[in-house]
Write a structure and sequence with these properties.
Fumarate Reductase Iron-sulfur Protein, Chain B, domain 2; 0% strand
Length: 156
């Protein structure tokens, strides 16, 4: 576990986030874990922990948060926001953090647009896979696999 030296962190980071529309309540988080327990990404990726991202942000760990690849893992399904007892809109916070990462030069602007495009592709694939399972007689597995192959071949 990495040692956190609070005096080296940015005490204004949490206020920078909280000042953005949609994230006003994010400092209310008391790390109950409801977001992480209900998150479909956390279910398949042990590294992904919405509660940890909030905590790191509140502690002022600007560079660690904004440079982290983990920001780009959120599927933006809003399950966390729907279930949070403190009404923290984590999905909105993630969008704000992604925008901040671009504005502050931690990632190239193209990544934000590519992430948005990829989110659409993933949601489309999800719907097609569900439809494929519900209607196996109309199976289009090869077409789905071709879409996945094409997307994996694109540069990130």
């Amino acid at each position: 576990m990495k040692k956190i030296i609070i005096s080296e962190n940015d005490p204004n980071f949490k206020y920078d986030i909280a000042s953005q529309p949609g994230s006003e309540s994010f400092m209310r988080c008391f790390t109950c874990g409801t977001c992480t327990a209900s998150c479909p990404v956390a279910e398949v990726n042990d590294e992904y922990d919405p509660r940890k991202i909030i905590r790191m942000s509140i502690l002022g760990m600007r560079e660690e948060v904004l440079s982290s690849d983990i920001l780009w893992m959120c599927s933006r399904c809003y399950t966390c926001a729907a279930l949070c007892p403190q009404n923290v809109k984590f999905t909105d916070v993630i969008s704000i953090l992604r925008d901040m990462a671009v504005k502050e030069g931690y990632v190239q602007p193209e990544r934000l647009e590519k992430a948005r495009e990829l989110d659409k592709v993933i949601q489309g694939l999800r719907c097609r896979i569900i439809d494929n399972k519900l209607h196996p007689e109309e199976s289009n597995t090869k077409e789905i696999l071709k879409t996945v192959e094409d997307e994996l071949g694109k540069e990130w």
